[in-house]
What does this fold into?
Amino acid sequence: MKYFVFIILCFTFIFGRINPFEPVIFPTNKNIVKPKYFTKAIVYLPSDARILKKIVFIYQSVSSDVKKKIVKIDKNIDFHSPIVITHKPKNFGIKKFYFGRFVLYIKNKKAFIKTKDKLIRSFFLIAPFRLVLDFRANNDFPTIRKKINTFIKKVVVGSHSGFYRVVIYLDSNYKYKITKMDEGIEIEFF
It folds into this structure.
């Protein structure tokens, strides 16, 4: 029994780490690849095709799961002309919103927060999807809520002791990249 305990203790010291919460694997590629959007596909059906029953879309979700969506058609088709599938990513025009401590600019899938306050921390939450940003400031002001009709649904700003929090509610789950600049921060969603 003593030898068994001794062997277990030896293995613990040999294979144990100083900080068990430190990750064992570190990402080698920290660059975020911007997506290239699908624009158009032309499909010619065989000469014996007469009725298009359904179209099956197989896609990869944000969580990397492969899913499918079936669209039932059940209509006659002419095999001489192709079936054209087009995709035009939505272009959101530039919008400007004032929030007292900062100004928020939104264009396409980018948001820019113009402020001199320092970003302390940021994190992403789900249910509902939202990006939380904390900025250092010693101001007390009432909570500000603004609805925005883009991929950003609304923005809520509230003051806390020593900082204020900006919560950006999104219409879906997005990956994002925050870039700190002299005039504020830029957030790119994809």
